[in-house]
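quick one, 322 residues, struct below
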Amino acid sequence: MHVFVTGGTGQTGPTVVAELLAAGHTVTGLARSEAAAARVESLGATPHRGSLDDLDSLRGGAEAADGVLHMAYGGDYADPDDLIRRDRAAIEALGHALTGSGRPLVSTSGTLVTRAGRVSTEQDAPDPDSVAAFRIAGEQACLGFADLGVRSSVVRLAPTVHGPCDYGFVPALIAAARRAGVSAYIGDGANRWPAVHRADAASLFRLALEKAPAGSVLHGVGESAITIKSIAEQIARMLDIPTASLTLEQASEHLGNPFLARFFSLDVPVSSEHTQALLGWTPEHATLLEDLKTGDYFTPEASIRAEEIWLPRHGSHQHSQR
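---
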């Protein structure tokens, strides 16, 4: 299969591209700059110049492919309406290029669209009051193409997709612990958080392209319910510092970012049992706590990355979905 990929140079993208190539597929990757084009070529893929806002380039890439994997997501996070508009427009451009062909379109969302406080499944509708409600319109746009002759599916990734050079939420916890000399959690820390190893997420994306039925919602979750306290305790062990329980207000100051404090206060366990049974997907790589022990999370470079991403602001930056 020849696959057109958006977000191929982001945090998860290179691992996904490698997974597709190893399985015998060929890949064309959207590239919005010369540097991105060079990065796409270095991964063994062919660059396709364009951007999320260049809808003609998206349509052209999709029309020339046997399937499309959409992982890119970008814009100003202080303007959710703009995020929604850009993502929906990109998905609609990709989907219309595939209409009536039976070819696959796999789009990316996050498990944080589900209702907090219970174990959510693939069958659960997204919650319009969720912290990630801005991803719902993209999900619905993609799944709507299942009625238009497109084998469309959505992969909801866990909020933590861990692996080398991670610049997501967990590195922000580590950076805050280094700054404060204490590894913190909110309240009793019993709130639950899903995670998946990046290599397992990559294999799920490949399987979705190859055989997910039209209209499928898939959960990219290797671990359903890791407590935030257990993450904080592992960080404390690695840094040889104490743990501490904080209020939400204290956590906002500790993390230097109220947005992060709200995220880490959520109880958002998620099941992927249906996804695993449907596609024969078996997460097999390191758990999050194992990765914290043996990975690169505690290198100086990791802390610098986290500080650059999360301390100044959580606004305008282009995300390629983790």
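The chain has 13 helices and 14 strands.
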